[in-house]
Write a structure and sequence with these properties.
Elements: E1 5-6, E2 17-24, E3 32-33, E4 37-43, E5 49-52, E6 55-58, E7 62-67, E8 73-76, E9 89-96, H1 103-106, H2 112-121, E10 125-126, H3 129-142, H4 147-162, E11 168-169, H5 185-196, H6 204-211, H7 215-226, H8 230-248, H9 253-259, H10 265-276, H11 280-287
Parallel strand pairs: 1-3
Antiparallel strand pairs: 2-9, 4-7, 4-9, 5-6, 5-8, 7-10, 10-11
Helix pairs in contact: 2-4, 3-4, 5-6, 6-7
Length: 294
């Protein structure tokens, strides 16, 4: 098993949020999680590797990511190397409690988009370059505000992020044990079946029958509702379980693949790399050993 570092953040129970700025040349913080939500801005860190849940990616010069509570994450050296005369990496980290926004409050119509943002953040969200350019000046001046003005600005920033275009959800829903509402009883019945039986053989014929549809009709229906084919949806569920097993167990990669429903190891390796940007072996190594943090 691989232990993910549990961070105790400086945010107290009496604070609404905390924001701190750092300029760094070195990266020495391990993969970790914490109970608080975190909005992390990194400027000048091209070549750094980011891990959020089971998602791995090498970042560009500027990136902005919102990480939900208890989701493993970290930024690591990888291809980044500071040299004399280079500007240091500039990082701004904003952390806030999950219960800063009460569930009843979030159900109000005017806060629909923020509620949706926080729900997606459970899997981690990466924002587009255009969004970063708009938000950077506000994050840089947020620590100059105080009291009620600072809370209003935080809510305004979160609202603007919630309605921004081209945001990307990073981690697999199965990895984070998230149940997605597709507003369709048929689809949700099928997904519940696939989540419960991912380690067994599941056929298009079987799930179509479960949904009370022909195979052709169901194939069109699931693609329209989810944006993914039946096979893509099933593989995503299985990949989430394989990623978790790579972290939580010492089983071999082939054992994990077969236990999670993949009967062809080369096929498993190929789709795992396509989804996560690394091989299962590299993924496990990302979570193990000494790593460095921006």
């Amino acid at each position: 098993m691989i232990e993910v570092y549990r961070e105790i953040t400086p945010l107290t129970q009496y604070d609404c949020f905390t924001v701190f700025t750092r300029k760094k040349k070195t990266f020495d913080f391990p993969l970790h999680n914490h109970a608080e939500f975190e909005l992390n801005l990194i400027l000048g860190g091209k070549g750094v590797k980011r891990i959020v849940g089971d998602h791995t990616e090498v970042i560009e010069d500027a990136e902005l990511v919102l990480v939900g509570n208890n989701l493993p994450h970290g930024w690591f050296t990888h291809q980044y190397s500071w040299e004399e005369g280079m500007p240091e990496v500039h990082e701004i980290t904003l952390q806030f409690h999950r219960d800063l926004f009460d569930d009843k409050l979030l159900r109000r119509n005017q806060l629909f988009f923020i509620r949706s943002l926080l729900e997606k953040a459970v899997r981690g969200i990466s924002f587009s370059k255009d969004t970063i350019e708009r938000i950077v000046p506000r994050l840089m001046t947020l620590n100059q505000k105080s009291g009620f003005d600072s809370i209003l600005e935080l809510m305004s920033i979160l609202h603007d992020l919630s309605i921004s275009r081209n945001m990307r959800v990073l981690s697999n829903s199965t990895f984070t044990d998230e149940n997605i509402n597709f507003n369709s009883r048929r689809i949700e019945k099928v997904f519940a079946y696939m989540r419960d039986n991912y380690d067994k053989e599941i056929s298009l014929e079987g799930v179509a029958k479960l949904a009370g549809m022909t195979e052709v009709s169901f194939s069109r229906f699931i693609k329209k509702r989810t944006g993914k084919t039946f096979i893509e949806s099933l593989n995503e569920i299985r990949l989430g379980h394989t990623s978790r097993s790579l972290i939580d167990t010492t089983n071999t990669i082939s054992e994990i693949a077969y236990k999670c429903g993949f009967n062809n190891l080369s096929y498993f390796n190929r789709i795992f790399k396509n989804k996560n940007g690394c091989t299962p072996k590299e993924f496990r190594e990302n979570y193990a050993g000494t790593r460095t943090f921006v």
